[in-house]
What does this fold into?
Amino acid sequence: MKHLIFILLIFTSFGIRGQETSENLPRRVSKSVEKTFGKENLQLENLTENQIDNFTASYEGNFYGLKQNGQNETTGYLHIGRVKTCRSGGCSAQETNSEQHSSEYFDYVILFDTEANIELVKIFNYQATHGQEITARGWLKQFLGFSGSDSLEVGKDIDTISGATISVYAITSDVQYKTEKLKELIN
It folds into this structure.
């Protein structure tokens, strides 16, 4: 019983609350937030009802408003999410055991300005065997300034990458969807 109480205390201390600080983010995400929005201690205000642990435990991910400590004005928005791609063996590999489903995925962050225009897209945990090329900062810069008013089209607005076709389509679709979702949340 004492162990259960101790575990509950840990989760409530470090766990999910309506307000978190940027220090509670994964280190690579926290550095990106600080570089984009300044080094002041930022508060995270959860904009979605779906509270998640570790910021990456959910496929959908969460949206956060970023506020300077002690101020009510939002300085930007943050989305942390996971994109599932194909499992090891390829997209058409047959599932032999549903309990051993081994989807590949990557976790990423999108930073938005106050108008929900993209300031940064960064992949901070790539767990797929192919398509690592999409983690390149130069390739991800294609999303900068995207506002959701138009659609993103791979091959036209977003460069294709040989050997990373599935990852390119997956992140492009997810970035577009998450930008539209954020616009809905803040309007």
